[in-house]
Design brief:
By secondary structure, the protein is α/β, with parallel strands linked by helices. It has a 6-stranded mixed β-sheet with strand order 8-7-6-9-11-10.
Amino acid sequence: MDIRLICMDLDGTTLQNDRKSFSPRLHAALAEAHRRGIAIAPVTGRQYGLLPQVLKEHPVWEQYAVVCNGAQIRLLGTGEVLHRLDITHQALEGLLRLARKWDLPIEFSEDSRLYLTAHSYEQQRPWPNLAFHRDTILANHGQILDALEPLCSHRIEKVNLLCIRPEIREQVLQDLQEIPVSAVWASSTSMEITHPEASKSAGILALCRLLDITPEQAMALGDSGNDESMLRTAGLSIAMGNAPEYIRAMADAVTDTNENDGAAIAIERYALKL
């Protein structure tokens, strides 16, 4: 297979467990892929302003980034927006009603700033899996407001719906079907919500058009539910060893975990053919 594009998720895939760095082996694999003319693009649920420092240091391969689960395509080096899809005002109002109905924390993201109420913030405290989000992301990019309703007229790129307990999971999913949005699982209890036409799959297809290649020439690496659409779209899909079983089952191949250089190993094997 002639790989001309590597689409790589960040958290749980290419980033180490510190959520901010690449391993030396991955740095080397990406540099070699670039030298051979293979395009490289982070494809992530993160907003552009929340990308890790390792991507802000102008790696030799920097070009495009798909952020907000496909709601935006930007130039990685400058942040210039090439494409964006914002959630409609009506959908935002519906999401607020849903959050109130099930008493769930909800966050609105506008230009990489996360807005939430004090109640939503306090609801996250008992959840250990939200420690990084609460103590790092919100500490640096969060702002507490009295209410989110005034933001429904703003250009909101992404909404986080958090702390979804297993016993209400199906009811929440049913309610979401009535709202014109795209919703994917970022973890077993958290969802990332965007415009209905936004997806990592749509992001890959747009990148392929920009690069004048086919999706069959793209390789995708991912580890979670929000990677599912791009794994189904790319010609070669690689699941991380730390991915849930259903993600590993749907992929063309499974590599090692993110902490054990799984991304570098896959790039070396399938793109560089080492």
